[in-house]
Write a structure and sequence with these properties.
The chain has about 350 residues and is an alpha+beta fold. It has a single domain, classed as Alpha-Beta Plaits (2-Layer Sandwich). The strands form 6 sheets. A 4-stranded mixed β-sheet has the order 10-1-12-11. A hairpin with a 2-residue loop joins β3 and β4. The protein starts with 5 loop residues before the first strand and ends with a helix.
């Protein structure tokens, strides 16, 4: 049991799919051997199959308090990294006669294979971006599934970590996780996953994905801290909801759901009576509470359009970016300097 729980809120109305968060994470944590295919932070286009491919149908988690069987995703389903003929093009002295192409077997899937592919019919197509990391669940199935007790929640902040010294690569955790955000390093024979940048957290620095986000859509803080914007968005305003709450894992990553754009009718006019993103699709992702969250968002936006004030809209706009970080706003450069 953890004394406190760190959490994150992501406002899907502000994500532009730039993947800065993914690259920040990749550069910091998954550059070693055996980690080529790992993307601890991903940004998938929804509706889409995501990564690993079709992860929402691979089982895991709990149902009525009982563990539900899950499938262990393959590296191919995650999306293997592929190589290009860079050396041949750049150093092959073939002038303009050689172009970049994939070397070896042609891939048929990758982490962002269906990026920017919309659903719906013209002119009412729709899509939105869904950034995902490990949810650092309060009722973490990976912790329960590991026979080696190699996965644990840190007492001081609830971050779920893998003790690689204890891990023997059984991979029951990969089957148990319904979000499929645990990877296996074939070189080291251990499971690896998002660690919520705990070495940075320990030094008062926000996770790289949150610190680097140009859209200011990520909020970090303790669930119990009523001064943190995480608490205000999740508990006070109730506009940030968990992804797939039916998995019963009590995830600690929450989402402000996407507000529906207006449909366009047969005459080319805006029709605000029918949502463009189907309500049942959003409910399939976030549960029935998504409708209440969207109702609050629309009401507060309407208030501001009519000249009123809204604390919620001010919070989501994030006028001062450091407010998003729940006190973890130390400059990471100062941490490097203290060890020099």
């Amino acid at each position: 049991m953890s004394n406190k729980q760190l959490a994150m809120v992501l406002d899907l109305n502000k994500c532009i799919g730039c993947h800065t968060c993914s690259i920040a994470c990749k550069q910091l944590w998954t550059r070693d051997e055996g980690m080529e295919y790992m993307w601890w932070n991903t940004v998938n286009t929804m509706p889409g199959e995501g990564t690993p491919r079709g992860w929402e149908n691979l089982g895991g988690g709990f149902r009525n308090g009982e563990a539900k069987p899950g499938k262990m995703p393959t590296r191919k389903e995650f999306g293997e990294a592929w190589n290009y003929n860079f050396d041949e093009v750049l150093n092959g002295s073939k002038g303009g006669g050689q172009h970049l192409q994939i070397k070896g077997e042609q891939p048929d899937w990758g982490p962002n294979w269906d990026e920017d592919q919309a659903a719906g019919d013209y002119p009412n197509g729709y899509s939105f971006y869904l950034p995902r990391i490990c949810n650092h669940c309060s009722n973490a199935p990976c912790v329960a599934a590991c026979p080696r007790k190699a996965i644990e929640k840190r007492e001081q902040d609830g971050i779920v970590i893998v003790n690689e010294d204890r891990c023997r690569g059984y991979r029951f955790c990969m089957e148990a996780c319904p979000y499929k955000k645990i990877y296996f390093n074939q070189e080291k024979k251990v499971a690896q996953k998002c660690i919520f940048c705990f070495p940075r957290i320990d030094e008062g620095v926000a996770p790289a994905c949150a610190r680097q986000c140009p859209g200011r859509l990520r909020f970090v803080g303790y669930r119990e801290d009523r001064d943190a914007l995480v608490w205000k968005l999740v508990d006070k305003w109730k506009v940030a909801v968990p992804l797939h709450p039916e998995y019963e894992t009590e995830p600690n990553v929450f989402y402000v759901p996407p507000m529906n754009p207006a449909r366009i009718d047969e005459n080319g006019n805006l029709d605000f009576t029918q949502p463009r993103i189907p309500a049942d699709y959003l409910e399939s992702l976030f549960g029935p509470v998504v409708h209440d969250a969207l109702g609050i968002l629309h009401a507060e936006m309407k208030k501001t359009k009519e000249g009123g004030q809204s604390e919620l809209m001010d919070l989501l706009i994030a006028y001062e970016w450091t407010d998003n970080l729940g006190g973890f706003d130390r400059d990471p450069a100062t941490v490097v300097q203290q060890f020099e």
